[in-house]
């Protein structure tokens, strides 16, 4: 990292060093709030007064919107008070720039979302999959230019959009199966803006019952990176990779295939010599199942291979779909739309049913 990162674990009012789990200090609120779960508003206010921006990660859309509106409401209340803190809040928020952002949001095809408008008016916004593309672009641009000082988002922002901030706050989810170490590392990696900040800091916020999970997350190590082109059994990933470069015309000979696979992470991590047998078996599989034509050392794609490439299907699923289509030609049922729906449903969808965390699906839906 070009910018140092300091990680904290916050349990109730105590702030602990993430590496040693030793208590550093207890939070002393700048302002007393009626409802500030996890001291999120105080931590945001602290950064605002210091002239910095904050990213707050919440597990669900509804939580994002509620949290953003609570922070904005308190900023509004403090800003109207004739106190030193109120004066500082007014100085930090650029009213003219915020008005411009609101005007841009009003000109969106969907108009100004009322919940978003109430938050943006006081330098706060939420960001999740429910926003339109226009709304996302406007919110992201305003946050990058520090017109918006607090952005409350779902975890998808940690990996999908480059929006760093000086301080990152992570709300520990109540159902945290998805709160794995990779997601956590992506979130804390947003702390610190190159060229604007000299350091970054992250707070993983937990209550007493979530302390064990919090300690596990901050101390966990990232798993080693492994290639998806698994060697041993003839993997679907390896067959798909070879098929796609042949069908797209990237390679045209067996020597080209060897050069291509030699440039993969798998080759660098295991050695090129270990790829020989699986690669030969892969080409043989594609030839036997009529995906490629082999003439000497030359390789050519068949219409089946081109169809799989166009449909983004791996060879195994392509063969399965071809078999289903042949069967449908013999007895296609037209009494209802059920058979048509069955034919067009991607296999990847049905294969995921058994792996889904339905409580997680429910929380995302809500």
UniProtKB/TrEMBL annotation:
Gene Ontology MF term list: 3'-5' DNA helicase activity; ATP binding; hydrolase activity
Pfam families per UniProt: Helicase_C, HTH_61, POLQ_helical
Chain ranges of the Helicase C-terminal domain: 39-237
Gene3D superfamilies linked to this entry: 1.10.3380.30, P-loop containing nucleotide triphosphate hydrolases
SMART domains: HELICc
Presence of keyword Hydrolase: yes
Keywords for this protein: ATP-binding, Helicase, Hydrolase, Nucleotide-binding
Catalytic activity: ATP + H2O = ADP + phosphate + H(+)
Protein name from the UniProt record: Helicase C-terminal domain-containing protein
Organism (species): Homalodisca liturata
Highest classification ranks of the organism: Eukaryota, Metazoa, Ecdysozoa, Arthropoda, Hexapoda
